[in-house]
Design a protein that fits this description.
There is one protein chain. The chain is mainly alpha-helical and 228 residues long. The protein is built from eleven helices and no strands. The protein has helices at residues 2-16, 20-53, 59-68, 74-85, 100-124, 128-136, 141-151, 153-169, 172-178, 188-198, 201-227. The protein is globular, with a radius of gyration of 21 Å.
Length: 228
């Protein structure tokens, strides 16, 4: 118990003193996850609109598949990305294996189903009378989409935040394709895993506190959105 308490005290000191290694790892995690979330959002927002506003055979099945992929294991995505971008893979020519770039690609693949499903759900939850009124007043398809997104903006934003939370908290994918290289691809979750296995509880606890703080901020943001 004494060792744990001393570890917590040291971890707090590392955070308060803005330890360079701790700040570097935390900053890299935020940068990679924010980049992947932004790319995924650029894909999911128009794709979600296309799926929601159009009727086509198999639409319900497609949405069910997307929702099933919410719980897609990170190691499965990591394996897929590893096979695709390894030197023997079809995309190995890009030479981005074990780099932040391939970690971004992997996280984009991981969070797209979650973001896309929540965006479609948010759009589906809007009052149908709003779109009917817009159409009756002569609104174009694009204008109707803008109006619907405006009404569903809080639900859509919640979906984007959830995607970011999923990205920054994953560990299996980053380990498999990033390699956990110090000063290059090491993130909060991979560093916690490594330092814990080495017995360096101080650094692991410091990074764990930062991750919990980020999760708390995300949760508070989601609660505020839901209240509105």
């Amino acid at each position: 118990m004494t060792e744990l308490w001393e570890g917590l005290v040291t971890a707090v000191k590392l955070i308060i003193s803005l330890d360079p290694e701790v700040m570097q790892i935390a900053g890299r995690s935020l940068a990679i996850s924010a980049t992947s979330s932004a790319i995924a959002a650029l894909i999911c927002l128009p794709l979600g609109a296309v799926i929601h506003f159009n009727r086509f055979p198999g639409k319900r099945t497609l949405i069910n598949i997307i929702q099933t992929l919410f719980s897609l294991p990170t190691v499965a995505v990591g394996l897929f990305v590893f096979v695709m971008f390894s030197s023997a893979g079809p995309l190995g020519g890009f030479g981005i294996m074990f780099s932040p770039a391939v970690m971004v690609v992997g996280q984009v693949v991981l969070i797209i189903p979650l973001m896309l499903g929540l965006i479609i759900s948010a759009l589906s939850a809007t009052d149908k009378a709003i779109t009917d009124t817009a159409v009756s007043l002569g609104a174009s398809g694009f204008q109707m989409s803008v109006i619907t997104f405006r009404e569903a903006r809080f639900g859509v934003l919640a979906g984007l935040i959830m995607g970011f939370g999923r990205a920054i908290s994953e560990v299996g994918l980053s380990l498999m394709v990033g390699g956990n290289i110090r000063g290059f691809t090491r993130t909060i979750t991979t560093a916690i895993s490594l330092e814990t296995s080495k017995g360096d509880l101080e650094l692991a606890l410091a990074l764990g506190m930062i991750l919990i703080f980020i999760a708390l901020v995300i949760n508070i943001g989601l609660n505020r959105i839901q209240q509105r």
